[in-house]
Structures are given as structure tokens and as C-alpha cells.
Amino acid sequence: MSDALRTEVRDWMETNLAGRFEPLRHRGNAGDGDALPELRKEWERVLADGRWTCPGWPKEWGGRGLSVAEQIVFQEEYGRAGGPGRMGHIGEGLIGPTLIAFGTNDQKERFLAGIRAGTEYWCQGYSEPGAGSDLANIRTRARFDPASGDWLVSGQKVWTSLAHLSDWIFVLARCEEGSVGRNGLIFLLMQLNQPGVEIQPIRQIGGGAEFNSVFFDGARARAADIVGKPGEGWKIAMALLGFERGISTLGQQMAFAQELNLICEIARENGAAHVPELRLRVARAWAGLRAMRYLAMRVLSGDPSGETLRETLGYKYHWSNWHRDLGKLAMDVLGPDANVVSDDPRHERLRQLFLFSRADTIYGGTNEIQLNIIAEQGLAMPREPRGNLS
Amino acid sequence: MQPANDQRIDSGNGMDLVFSDDQKMIRDEATRFLADRSSSERVRQIVQAAQGLDAELWATVAGELGWCAMAISEEFGGLGLGMSEQMLLMEAAGLRLAALPLWSTACMAAPLIAAVGVDAAKAKLLRRIAGGEAASVAWGNIGAVDPLAHDGFEARADGGGYVIAGRAAQVTDLLAAGIVLVPARLDGELALFCLPAEAGERRLLATLDGTRQIGELTLDAVSLPASARIDAAGFDAAAARPAIESAMLGLAAEQVGAARGVMDITLNYIAGRVQFGRAIASFQAVKHRCALLEVDFSEARSLIYGAAASFATATPDERRSEVAASRALASALLYRTSEEAIQLHGGVGFTWEYDPHLYFKRAQAASSLFGAPHAHLELIADGLLGAKGPR
Question: Which of A212, B53, B218, B331 counts the highest number of beta carbons within 10 A?
Fold first, then answer.
């Protein structure tokens, strides 16, 4: 079954990721997320026509109902073929499953088809300037408008990936005046193209701008666009993160393997392959990547006994630090060639790897937060005390 | 070796890495049993006795519980289970620093017989091992990543039999083993001999790690009957690779188990140790160091489980790299975990009374066997980058 699927995906990618889509190969991954946006949206629609968007969704909502193992196969082959970073990832992997689980029928009817078809794009409104690692500290306010039954939102979200290329945003906001922490929050679906929403790009370390600040000034979330009840926002927001099981990281690992490959290739060309220290670091990277693969398979296989929970907790720390180290290794292998722009596209890819992998250990839970989680949830060590500064 | 390519770096198909109920049962039973029978007190008695062997425990696990029969095929009296089950047992043994010749016997000697032995030798020797007899191999250099590249012994035909001479400076579980295998150079080829009982000079060595027996074997022109030779007509190093890699992977699993053991001891200690009015486990500086070890632990263990699951099906190059990676990670993991254990225990960490030193000594000793981490990494680098040339 999985071999047949593997062949099917491989053939499909070979046939379709070609011609005018050729430039998309290996593009649009983290750090390069704003590359070729229009072409990537077209690519999403080709994927949708092939029924390869949302393959893990249930069939009634246009998915293929693939098992976890089958989704892994799809992700691996997509990544192996150099499939571009998915513009529809937030819709497909995060808000879609959340709506399937918690949305009203009306919400499912209105939103799922657009995500599946690659015609509507979503972004995530969680982090704020004062709420990074401490997400529950969000200040964006949602005020009920009795006249319309809608909610009026004011505040600022930050690090919003691809907001400038998206149609909708899901927003975690505070709906109860005076509430603190996880209480009194609301989970809203909001159109970006409306008065009272302003999007400002944030230029990042590598020069690109896939993140944004999103400012809300009395912008409107319609009454029909609340997920869950007012006050239940935290529950929905956390459930959403739970849907990101990391299956897409298997595809990401294929990109990592290609990066390591490039590094080996260049090392053999420029003589770095003979430097003892670099040889050991390349070998260590290979070992880490192989371990990462088996670790992911253990984590994703979802042992029903929960035995793999501890490993699950460490997975993000492992891959992000591995990848960050790979960026430094790439530069050390390139040597002075890394300092100057060259015609060799491999050099630019590795330079971006070096720069953007600094973000890997910060977004999605910083190293420091990850280590707290591993210590507290995995090793049952005492919890961090909370301070009371505001 | 082939240079790197996509296939090599990202190959491997999906496999099920969730343990079956049977596998979990083997692991849980072994873990429970050794928690009771290889307690800290017991291990200390063994260290004190300076034989590197818990003979009583061995009689039970090998003779009664059939631990050595696990991976031996059914036709030779074994249970016909695979590398994964073997790894789970080794992990359980490492967890308690059980002073058993299990590694030498089940991961090294039995696979070597299975790899290069003739059928008659397999029928006889594997059956004895499955029945609980300890065995070991006298490698020329037990510290080398390729222990066959170093000749320890020379043999020559003599009348109807052979004369063999040479020395193995360190043979694990030498005095515990009823079956001692000796790879020797014979007319430029490799041959494998099984020493008759009492043949040669076998000297017990005093060791850094008191939980593993090491002996020195000297053969001073010892005459052996023709029947002592157990390979068909010479074998090459490639034929013995599966056995050597089985030994490496088994050792890695044992190291990972020991890392878990010393980590558990440490977590337990720091949860109860109070300073500044709080358990020292509540300090973030302490929590983060434990969490980092946990990340490394998951990394090494997942790699070993994956390498074990694909051991029988991987290509030789692939398997060699995965095993080398397993050893490199496991050696580094156990050393780091045990040195952190001493540090996190504070003053009592460097006393005889507390257990971290037992693991610390095991860590150093084990990492020197069958290739230090850098040697394994160099092996992987050869595959990815080609052999090292002059710079």
C-alpha cells in the first residue's frame, strides 16, 4: 500500500513539478517563505487538482483520509522531489483540522473548501509584542458589539507568517475585561481585507520578509466566525497546536538531507572534505539526521500506550538545534566563499540556511521553553514559578 | 565507498518502530528482574569481588530465562527473534550495570559463529550458547573500529590439526566463557578457531570498570585438533561484518541503557536534595541540563532502535553507517550523562558510597571498545566525503 502510494506521489511530482513550476524546486521553505508567491499559489491549485492538498483530511471534506503512515510517505516524497514550501500549510495543517473538530457546520461549509482548493489562504494571529513564550499574556482585545452581534478587535499581532499573502487570520484575543492568563480569551476568524487591519512586513535576518506585524483597530469578526464559545479561546488555541503533529517535518527532513548533501558536494569540490574537524562535523550531522528520522517515526507512529511521549517532547529541540548547527557547518565548509555573492545558487541557499536557521530555535517555542517542557512534563521536575510583573 | 548522494542520505522507507506487545513484555520482564537481582548492593558486591562477573545471575538469565537464545535461530535451539529484542535486553542489562557476559555471548560470539561457522559448528556451539553457556571472541584489538584488521593470532596447519600462537591483550568475559573463539591468520586468510577448554593462558585483569570482566589470552604455539576450526575454508572481513556490527549495536544499546540508569538515579537524588529552601531539581540551571541529556538520550535511542529494526534489510554500507552512528552517539551520551550525574550529585557525587562512579567508569571503558566515537564518525565521513587525503 505505502509502496504504491510512494510511487504514485513520486510520479505525480515528476510530471507536475516541471515546466513553469521548475523554479519552485526547493523554494519557499522556512526563511524563504515569501519566495515566488504567485507561482506558489498556482502550484497549490495544481496540487489541489491532483487531490494532494489536505490528504490527511476526511474524505467528506475533500481529503483522502490518509493514515499517518501514508501522510508520512506523501510528505517524504513531496520533500524528496523538492516540492516548494506550502503556502496552504496553515490552512491545511492548523485551522482546517481545528474547524473540522470544533467548527460549526456553517464554518466548515464556508472555509474548508477554499483551503482544500488552494483558493483561500490563512495566517495565525497568536504572538504579540508582549506575548511570545508567554502566550497567555496576550492583550489584543475583542469587544462585543451588541448592535451587530459581531466582535470588534483592537491590538497587535506579530511574527505573522505570510499575512501579506493571506486572506484570513485566526486571532486569539481577550474578550473579558480584566481577565488574565488563559481565562477570558476568544478564538476568532477574521478577514484581512477590511478596514481596521493593517499589515506591516518585518524584514528578517536574511533580507526576506515572510513575517509581518498585523495591527487591528476596531476590525470586525462576524458573530458567525467565533470558534468555540467566548472564554474558550485558550482551549481552541491549544487544540490547534496539537493538530500540528509534525508530519510535515518528515518532508522538512528531506530538505535537510538535501542541504547536507550540498554541503558534502561542496566539501568534496573545495577540499574541505580533507579537513579532519569538518569531516567529524559532517559525520555527526549525518548521525543526527538519521536519528531524527527514526525519532520522528517513533513519535508519529503514535504508540497508543503513550510510551513515546518523552521523545515527542524533545523532538522540536532536536531538529531545530541540529539544523542551526548545520547552517554553521555549511559556512565553515564554504569558507571565504560564503562571504561573497556568487553565481552558484547553492551558495545562496546555504547562506540563507545559516541565517534563517537562527529562527528555528526561537519560533514555535524557544530552546529555553522546550527545555522547560522536557524537564517538567517529561522528567517530572518542578515547575517554574511565575513572576508577577506586568 | 560511494560518495554521498540523495539515496544515501535520505534513503530508508517507512517502518514500524512501535514495539509489539511481545517485545514490550521481554523488555519489561528483563527490566523488572534486573531491578531486583542486579541492585546497587549486588553490583557493589560484584565490584568488590573483582571478577567482573555475577555468575549466579548469569546462571539464571542464560540457563533458565534463555536470554542468549533470543536471537539464535530456531533450528539451533534458539527463539529466532531479531535484533530489536536483543537490543531491548541489552538496554535492560545496561540500566543496572548487570555484570553478565551477555554482550560477549549473545551480541558477539553467537553472531560470529552464525556468520562464518560451518553448519556442524553452528549446530553444536549455538545450541550450547542457547542453552546458557557463555562465549567470547579474542579479537586482536578490541579497541579498533575494525577489530579484524589487527592480527592477534597466527595459525598454521600441522599434521592433521593446527598450531596457533599469539596474544589478545583484552578479551571480554574470557574466564567466564566456556566457548572462546579465536580469529587467526592462516595462510594469509582469516580462520576461526574454538579453543578447547583450558587451552592457552587466560589471565584475569584488574579493570577500571568492575562490572565487565576482561582477561588476557596468550597462546604459545598451542596445538589444536582439526575439529577446533569452525569456518569452512577461510573467510574475509566482509563476512564477519554482521557479527562485528551486532556487537557494536549491542554495546550501544547497553550504553544507552546505562545512560538511562544513571539519569534515573540522578533525577531521584536531585528531587530530594534541598538547598536554599528548595529541591535542587527546581533550579532552571539543573532542569535544563537534565533536559539536554534527555534530548541526547532520545536521539541515541531512536537511532539504535531504527538501526536494529533495519539491521537485516539495510544495505551493507547503510548498516555500517547506522551502526557507527549509534556507537558514536551512545558513547558520547553515556559519558556525558555519567559526568553530569557526578556534577549534579555535588559532593557525594565523587564518593564511593553513591552510584554515579560505577556508571562513569562503565562509560569510559565501554566507549573505548570497538572504536572510539571519532573512529566511528570517521567511518561515516569516509562514506560521505571519500577517504581523507593530504591537505
Answer: B331
